[in-house]
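Quick one - inputs below.
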Amino acid sequence: MEVIMKGINKSFSGVQVLKGAGIHVKEKEIHALMGENGAGKSTLMKILSGVYTKQEGLIEINGQEQHFHSIKDSENKKIAFIHQELNVLNEMSIVENMFLGKEIKKKLGLVNNKEMTKIAKEKLHLLGLDVDPTILVKDISVGKRQLVEIAKALLMDAELIIMDEPTAALTDKEIDLLFEIIRNLKNKGVSFIYISHRMEEIFHLCDTITVMRDGSFVGQKDTKDTSFDEIVSMMVGYSLDDRFPRVEIDPGNIVLSVKDLNLNGKFKDVSFDVREGEILGFSGLMGSGRTDVMHAIFGSIPFDSGTISINQKKVQINSPIQAKKNGIGFITEDRKNEGLILSFSVAENTILPSLKNFTEKKLIKESKITGKVAEYIKKLNVRTPNQTIETNKLSGGNQQKIVIAKWLMTDPKILILDEPTRGVDVGAKKEIYEIINHLKKQGVAIIVVSSELPEVLGICDRIAVMHEGVLKKIFTRLDATQEKIMEYATGGGK
Amino acid sequence: MIMARFEGVFRKYGTVLGLILLVVLITIINPRFITLDNILNIFRQVSINGLIAFGMTFVILTGGIDLSVGAILALSGMLLGLMIAAGVPELIAIPTVIIFGALLGLFNGIFVAKVKLQAFIVTLATMTMYRGITMIISDGIPAMGLTSDAPILNFFSQGSILGLPFPMVLLLIVFVILMILLKYTVFGRGVYAIGGNEEVARLASLPTDRIKTMVYVISGTMAALAGVILTSRLSSAQPTAGMMFELDAIAAVVIGGTSLAGGKGRLFGTLIGVLIIGVLNNGLNIIGVSAFYQQFIKGLVILLAVILDRKSTR
Amino acid sequence: MIMARFEGVFRKYGTVLGLILLVVLITIINPRFITLDNILNIFRQVSINGLIAFGMTFVILTGGIDLSVGAILALSGMLLGLMIAAGVPELIAIPTVIIFGALLGLFNGIFVAKVKLQAFIVTLATMTMYRGITMIISDGIPAMGLTSDAPILNFFSQGSILGLPFPMVLLLIVFVILMILLKYTVFGRGVYAIGGNEEVARLASLPTDRIKTMVYVISGTMAALAGVILTSRLSSAQPTAGMMFELDAIAAVVIGGTSLAGGKGRLFGTLIGVLIIGVLNNGLNIIGVSAFYQQFIKGLVILLAVILDRKSTR
Amino acid sequence: NDDEASGADGDSIALLMADLGNPFFHVLRDAVVERGEELGYEVLVYDGQNDASRQPSQVEDALQKGVSAIIINPADESSSANALKEAIDKGIPVVTVDRAVDVDGVLSYLVTDNLKGGELVGKWLEGQLPDGGKVIHMEGVMGTAPQRERGGGFLSVIDPNENSESKFEIIGTAVGDFSMAPAEAAMSDLLARHDEIDAVFAQNDTMAVGIARAIETAGRQDEGIIIIGFDGAKEAYDLIEKGEMNVTAVQDFDFIGSEAVNFVDEYLKNGTEPEDFVLVDVYMSDSK
Ligand SMILES: Nc1ncnc2c1ncn2[C@@H]1O[C@H](COP(=O)(O)OP(=O)(O)OP(=O)(O)O)[C@@H](O)[C@H]1O
Ligand SMILES: Nc1ncnc2c1ncn2[C@@H]1O[C@H](COP(=O)(O)OP(=O)(O)OP(=O)(O)O)[C@@H](O)[C@H]1O
Ligand SMILES: [Mg+2]
Ligand SMILES: [Mg+2]
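Output:
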């Protein structure tokens, strides 16, 4: 399928989000769409799939102009869209999710569960997912949920598949499989639009790259004729010399010490230390239990046994309240469900854990808040029109910075960051690394949980590797390589 | 193994255990409770709350609520009474009021789905409006003696099929139809999907507005059908009928394990919830608990039932 | 410019426009409506629903609901009546029942926050239980003639300060206190945060369980305070007092623009909502609309008010 | 008299009914409205919807509206006392019907003697069943005055705990809330529980009708269960005529209503003060 979008304009309540955006996808092509957070990639794709209607511009499919008014219209043209957010219903089964709105019916209009289950099984098998399709989605891992979404698109016999950050929650193994499937489908004539903030992936998979900035089309390049640096500078408007800045300082005393932490079914005998001014990375496959360990340390889930010491003193942490009292901050991985109240303003979100600091005689002083929030907006270089805008109006990278600002304001001695750059563009990623480095210089003990190996290797001083709830090995930076980490992460090593 | 399977059933149907406990307890106190006569009596009595609660289940599964069901019952019952009293043939009058109930539901549905107002406040407002209309059209006076010349209407409460009271048979037939609708049709999937996450349902190109409207139509239809049974049962249409029925229906749905947040629940649970409330009402009378204590005990049992359900589904 | 600012006010306080419209309309039909006497009269009348609705606003802001307020009002009113009738000094009796109301709210709060049951069903169950207890302790008999020897209790409804009826003064004082609590304390911010996203609030180290419990305590306290005023107003404690008061309070909160989903809304809106309902009740009487039509119109106006609010906040 | 557009400020009477949801009270309302209009008054009817807390507001609203007299059917003895006091202080005549209000200065009150009515029912039943029998007592909305008084009067005769000479046994008490559906449901339960029932006393006719229907549904209409209602409503007479009910204790609302208007009229026109207390007896009747 050949798709041409040209001169697309779109505004939301007066704010112009797309101005002259476009893309030209050829038949049998994997076409990357790149741009900073908030550049308008998802919005452009929502227009192509009929979720939004464009205000101006041209959409042409195989040479024919199209006017999509609903999702059905685009589905009829064989366009499938895997959205950026997981769009699955946790309380429904895999097969129910896959066929939602497209159920196969028997005579009498009743749904044909048998047939659908059979087909679902086949499609899932193609994706290397051999689960019973009748189990509930809430009982499978987040990565598998993403695969269910992809299977949904396969059902449609689509001729164009749009994937908006499909790999954000997948393991490397799953990603490899996905890429193989994408290539196979391409060879059968399917075109793809692929959105991702992972540069390595783009160069590995895609034939062509379209870059957009601030809602406009910037340029199109063939992958073989371009470079990381060129694409990055097209995206951000300047060149980014060092993707992983680091600072070297000597770590101080042990601040956090975790010993033999256990939670049945989640993790086992986890022990490690973190020092002042040190960044400890946590690597591992999705679902290896890293997040659960962090929640246990933070008191937001209970654990069975083990001890946590801070500055060599054993502490009891049963709730985030106590964690904060002990100087721990926690930037959670799921920004939408755990990090931000999306309907609240930037300021309201930022001050949430440190509300008490803004009171005088128990009453909150608005004036104190405004100043402090402004200071952090500046410090973290958050791009937002003002403090009172709802956070759901911000781009992903800027939302992430708000979550970080929230905990920085509490002056933590220990800061845990769980997937701090997931879904964040390259420019913002670097800014986040710089914030982390700044904290490191101030002597904060830092834990970074990340599934992106280049990131872990780039910024951490030591790297802990987990596999199925067990902490297999802690590397120093100099010992660590991608290969060694993967070996331990997949259960190898000794 | 057997123990585990046993546990599985209770985890799935937590309140079944509650119902059994309740029945055993009441039977121990007064064995007359468990006579065939009384069991049929209970089924006859729960048919009204049952029908309303079935409709309410659809509404709640989408994440909505319908406070107007009692008022719809009263209004359609009164309309039926006035029509019968005015000599309209019952074969015309009965279907007419059921369609009328559907239309009252449609009115709710439009405000919820199209105007996008909160279901609670829409149905609270229409509850008041429908009750007002009932008073206006009846002048506050009941229509009496309706079944004497209306054998079909009379059959709705007094009739029996194969020895089972007709209201019970009707309840079970409606149960089966609605269960098929909910479990085996595209519409039913849509109901769950909207309650689970309306945005996801919309992106799956489901006709979310239409489905949301429809659940109120179903609820209205069920309330009107319940109104026909009540009118038949009392042989009269009372302008103040159905007061607080909405609360009993919602209680039944929630006791049955359906989440008020939507997206999760089953019609079978509602049936159990309806039976728990029915057994409780009847049982307290059979035991002869004084009226003052009945209320307290009813509240307590509802609370316990929900705690039991929660413990078992954890 | 001015137009735009004007529009801004209405976008923010959509229902203020509704209230003004209503007042103008009623005044045109019967100018007696707008006399000082009648305005004070309205404030005296709305004080009871107002207090309850203020408490309800806290609960709804956290995403909860409290159906037991009418029952708490009745139970604490009855307790007050029994104590006064038994000769307990009113200076002891009045604070006692207000604390008692707080405890009834605490009971609700524990089941919602700690046992983690749905607020709707918890308060539906406790509503029934509290009503049952009211019946049991009173034996169904009202306590009468309470204010004859209780000047302070009498002052709660008959007294006035600077020419303003005491219930009105009390309403406004409570309004100011609760507004400060909601807008300028850590607790108040927590109330909004929990309604916005409870998990986020918990992970931000807010004491979510305590805050959730507290809102029910506030709601219970307000209901008990309203119970004191009603008891004073009626000079008697009725076992069946406060029936359906929960619905009026919820309606006021929602008309005032607070979302039943929680996290969004303001106390000032609730005050406007309370006044709309109060003006409506009073106005329809002043105009002399017949009783049966009053219900219909009331429902219609609530629906219109909510539509207006929605249009303006879009 | 400043004549406003609404015209309601002329000679108008406010009639405050406790609960128009109960059709029997329509008799009272109709009597007042009819007599009032005969005498040239506009009668403004307020419905308390069975909620004692509404009436004080309605009294206040009526005063704001500027009525010349108030006839009130109070929900209970004290709720509207403060509000009515205000009216009396303004020189507006207040007549209470069917129930007294605990306030000085009421022009008159005309009342059905519910307590005595309950006793009358008990005595009537004694006459029917001199050897006693098994009795079911269906109560109205708990806590309301008619429930307490009718029930109290009845039990003072029938309940062996209160009257040692009674040969009756109260085998079941249930609450029918003065309305048909709950009474019918509760009666169904009691029918399932008891094989032998001699008589049922329903505290109003609406409940009696529901009880008769429950007996019919259970197929026990031939057991000769005596059904006694209270009020003297049309539907009761209809059932009595068909032989499905036995008797009702009649409150003479026609008389009470028109007499109340007469009192007001006399007072407004001539300043004549009527008797301040008119007790209207209940009588048992089995035909209109
Ligand atoms: N429904 C909406 N209402 C208002 N503004 C919106 C809406 N949807 C998107 N925007 C705004 O439009 C801009 C583009 O958003 P979009 O989601 O398309 O960015 P993106 O390129 O996909 O970013 P990311 O890489 O973070 O996913 C952002 O500034 C966003 O805040
Ligand atoms: N939101 C969720 N709902 C259900 N299960 C989840 C959720 N998040 C994680 N899991 C599952 O819980 C288990 C432990 O995951 P945990 O998050 O601790 O591991 P992780 O190494 O941090 O991986 P991830 O990066 O996927 O979070 C895994 O099986 C994971 O798939
Ligand atoms: Mg995007
Ligand atoms: Mg994780």
